[in-house]
Amino acid sequence: MATIFIQWLITASISFLHPFYVSVIEIDHNAKDATAEISVRIFTDDLEKTLQKNTTTTIDILKPKNKAIIDQQINQYIAKTLQLKINGKAVQLNYIGYEIIKESTWSYFEVTEIKEMNTVDINCSILHDFESSQINLFHVKSKGNQKSYKLDYPNKSTSFSF
Questions:
Q1: How confident is the model at residue 15, as a pLDDT?
Q2: Cβ–Cβ < 8 Å for 38, 108
Q3: Would 16 be classed as within a structural domain?
Q4: CB-neighbour burial class of residue 92 (10 A; exposed 0-12, middle 13-18, buried 19+)
Q5: What is the pTM of this model?
Q6: Is the bond preceding residue 154 a cis peptide, omega within 30 degrees?
Q7: Which of 17, 68, 79, 161 has the maximum number of C-beta atoms within 10 A of its C-beta?
Q8: Is residue 145 part of a domain?
Q9: Of the given ranges (2-16, 30-44, 123-137, 138-152), which has the lowest mean pLDDT?
């Protein structure tokens, strides 16, 4: 974990000289509610530009004319670019919503009926259609343990075991 944090700090400090493209995906197992709670953090301007490629409607996440359309666009994009298998079984992400925190859009998802989370297999191509220097950072928590991994473009897959 410390290594990933140090790599992120180096990347952030270099960003003043060169733009960087990163998303952060957190997957937390909530044993009490038997759910997997997923948050996806993407820089808002990068997400808007990516969503704009797939529609003729103007995308403005900060000041949407119709929030329901933005919700639909974000949900469809993340569903297309982030697939999970939990305990060897493909799961569907249930979209909760999104919020803006500083320069990022945080979108939230949930997977129900996850009593235990022993393995998580990830296939992620978030923003691969936008930038070839994209980095996707994963933080996965289960059974009181957190594991992290960094996927650099064009790599899309990783797995976690608990």
A1: 47
A2: yes
A3: no
A4: exposed
A5: 0.86
A6: yes
A7: 79
A8: yes
A9: 2-16
Look-up of token digits 């990163």: 22
For residue 84, which amino acid is it? L
Instruction: Tell me the C-alpha distance between 61 and 59, whole Å.
Output: 6
Phi-psi domain of 18 (left: phi exceeds 0; alpha: psi -120 through 50; beta: other): beta
- The Cα-based distances of 147 to 110, 120, 138, 150 in angstroms read 19, 11, 8, 11
What range defines the domain where residue 109 resides? 2-9+23-161
Q: Fill in the DSSP letter of residue 117.
A: -
Residue 151 lies in a domain: yes
- Per the prediction, the chain carries an average pLDDT of 90
Do the domain assignments include residue 17? no
CB of 51 closer than 8 Å to CB of 73: yes
pLDDT more than 90, % of the chain: 79
